[in-house]
Amino acid sequence: MTETQKKEIQDEIATHKILVYGKGTKRAPRCGFTLETIEFFNQLGFPFEVVDVLDNTEKRQALTEMTDWPTLPKVFINGTFYGDTDVLGPMVENGELERVLASAFADARA
Q1: Cβ-count burial of 99 within 10 angstroms (0-12 exposed, 13-18 middle, 19+ buried)?
Q2: Tens digit of pLDDT for each residue in 17-54?
Q3: CATH code, domain carrying 60
Q4: Given 24, 78, 94, 109, which is the most exposed site by the fewest CB atoms within 10 A?
């Protein structure tokens, strides 16, 4: 991973409270897991961004190195890496994801 790649990713993560690196976009997901992740955030009503890395092998590799997580999507909330749909699903079911998001956005809603 180059320093340029690392800085680009760090800047994207810092810019968005919720950032999903996935396959496709918010309006046109290109895999079921990215779609499921988008649906989680749509249901909870918090603003989020999706960065399509399906065709960007170098960026996907850099993200894998940074997170030590091999699969997509890769979800960052308030700068913290949370994992993918397998992690978020149980968090949605037990209410933890909504609590994490409420905390992340507490300053913006105050």
Answers
A1: exposed
A2: 999 999 999 999 999 999 999 999 999 999 999 999 99
A3: 3.40.30.10
A4: 109
